Amino acid sequence: MKTYADINVVVVGTGFIGPVHIEALKRLGVNVIGIMGSSSQKSKSARKKFGLKKAYLQFDEILQDKAVDVIHIAVPNIFHYDMSKKALLAGKHVMCEKPLAMNIFESNELVSIAKESKLEAGVCYNTRFYPLNIEAKNKIQKNEIGQVFSIVGNYVQDWLLYETDYNWRVMADQGGALRAIADIGTHWMDLVSSITGLTIESVFADLSTFHPTRKRPKGEIETFSGKTSKQIETENITIDTEDCGSILLKFKGGAKGCLWVSQLNAGRKNQMRYEVSGSKGAIAWNSETPNEIWYGYRDKPNEILSKDPSLMSNLSQPYLSYPGGHNEGFSDTFKQIFKSFYDSILHGKNKEGIMYPTFAEGHHEIKICEAILESNKKEKWVIL
Ligand SMILES: NC(=O)c1ccc[n+]([C@@H]2O[C@H](COP(=O)([O-])OP(=O)(O)OC[C@H]3O[C@@H](n4cnc5c(N)ncnc54)[C@H](O)[C@@H]3O)[C@@H](O)[C@H]2O)c1
Question: Do residues 183 and 169 make contact, with C-beta atoms less than 8 angstroms apart?
Answer without folding.
Answer: yes
